[in-house]
Amino acid sequence: MNVRTLCLGILTFKEASGYEIKKMVEEDVFGHFIDASYGSIYPALTKMMAEGLVNVRAEEQAGKPDKKVYAITPFGRQELAAALLVDPAKDKFKSEFMFQIMLQEFLPKEHVAQIYQSQIEYLRDEIEKIRCCVGDHQVNHPSMSFVAGFGEASLGAGLKFLEDNRAQILGDETPSLTLVDGTLDHNKDQIEGQSKDQKNA
Amino acid sequence: MNVRTLCLGILTFKEASGYEIKKMVEEDVFGHFIDASYGSIYPALTKMMAEGLVNVRAEEQAGKPDKKVYAITPFGRQELAAALLVDPAKDKFKSEFMFQIMLQEFLPKEHVAQIYQSQIEYLRDEIEKIRCCVGDHQVNHPSMSFVAGFGEASLGAGLKFLEDNRAQILGDETPSLTLVDGTLDHNKDQIEGQSKDQKNA
DNA sequence: GTGAACATGTAACAAGTTACATGATTGA
DNA sequence: TCAATCATGTAACTTGTTACATGTTCAC
């Protein structure tokens, strides 16, 4: 699936400028399973404009530069439906973090501890982001809330695994802090971390 | 992270040919968080050979064509350690399936039902693959089993979500088949699918 | 008056994929 | 003999990213 289809899909939810599409891909529910940069979004929009898949309207904004608001046309919807009909490519999950963990013996202990903590915080942030979407934003769309639920479930399980199995990688030198709660069932090392430097930008 | 580092990392576990590296990336625990094709592996290996990061040994095989077995050199390990020291890029999860679900209203019901079932089967296969790795293969490496555990946890949660929330997307017209087991706790629609056509190659 | 957020766009570049090209060997 | 698996390699091509280039308005 290409940026074209991606933009077309987003535009079915609401009209948006290239800038706004990029923001959605970064922050909204979309962000968990798609990706795109300005360098691909703007040219795609321009080209689709020429092909009649979208139309533009210049919008003046008080206190902000003008923006070009794109909307999908009936022809665009047709194209989208066709593009959507091909069987989806299988999921692709890339994790440099996991690669580093796999090769942790080549890394200084402190580095491993640091990326481990960063990963936990990153996952917490992502989950929080999804919850925000479901809360304040309009994820009224049933499909949207389904997708959000899926993301929360997957990321949540991953996070829990990292929290529970910390000792497996980091040894028992867990930061001496308070336990999350009293309901420990088996071999838990649940520790609430405190650092705040999120290095993976 | 590039294919170079990927190959170097894999070669720390065992010597391998380009063909074997590709197979590992497809089938082993690696497969869940990295990706590479022949077209990138072979050139990377050749280049690293010239740079002294790996060395080769031609191995004759009974009943099979000869293969070029690559091994990492001390210099290669040095390079790997350096490459590993940079903070990992954040995880990237791409799912065309989720994109299609989000836009399901543009798709025929049957298509949605079909990709939904395919996705469930795909996830089951992936989890099974991980379990096989842990079982027969040597995932003796503690880091390996950790990574496998993480994959199993994440994928398992995603699969469970799909199984439990089928009705949200597909409605209640679940195929009339036998329930998986009797231990239903809350709102489960766990159905054992029977189709076998896995379309996402 | 300076940095941050808003806003659009392009061109050079990186990186890897696909398809092609080749060839051995085995088993149905 | 034909498909499948093993095995290596290259070149054209896609695709998208990064960095650059430019400009507005606001808040501190």
Concise structural overview:
Chain A is mainly alpha-helical and 201 residues long. Chain A has 8 helices and 3 strands; from the N terminus they run αααββαβαααα. Chain A folds into 2 domains: 3-85, Winged helix-like DNA-binding domain superfamily/Winged helix DNA-binding domain (Arc Repressor Mutant, subunit A); 96-170.
Textual characterization of the structure:
The structure is a homodimer of 201-residue chains. Chain A is mostly helical and 201 residues long. Chain A has two domains: 3-85, Arc Repressor Mutant, subunit A (Orthogonal Bundle); 96-170. Helices cover 53% and strands 10% of the residues of chain A. The first copy, chain A, has a two-stranded antiparallel sheet. In chain A, a hairpin with a 2-residue loop joins strand 1 (54-61) and strand 2. In chain A, helix 2 (18-27) crosses helix 3 (38-51). The longest helix of chain A is centred in the middle third of the chain and has 27 residues, at 109-135. The radius of gyration of chain A is 21 Å and the shape is elongated. The two termini of chain A are 25 Å apart. The relative contact order of chain A is 0.11. The model of chain A is unreliable at 176-201 (pLDDT under 50). Chains A and B meet through helix 4, strand 3, helix 5, helix 6 and helix 7 of A and helix 4, strand 3, helix 5, helix 6 and helix 7 of B. Strand 3 (92-94) of chain A pairs antiparallel with strand 3 of chain B, so a sheet runs across the interface. Chain A binds a DNA duplex (28 and 28 nucleotides) through residues 2-3, 17-19, 35-40, 42-43, 46, 61, 63-68.
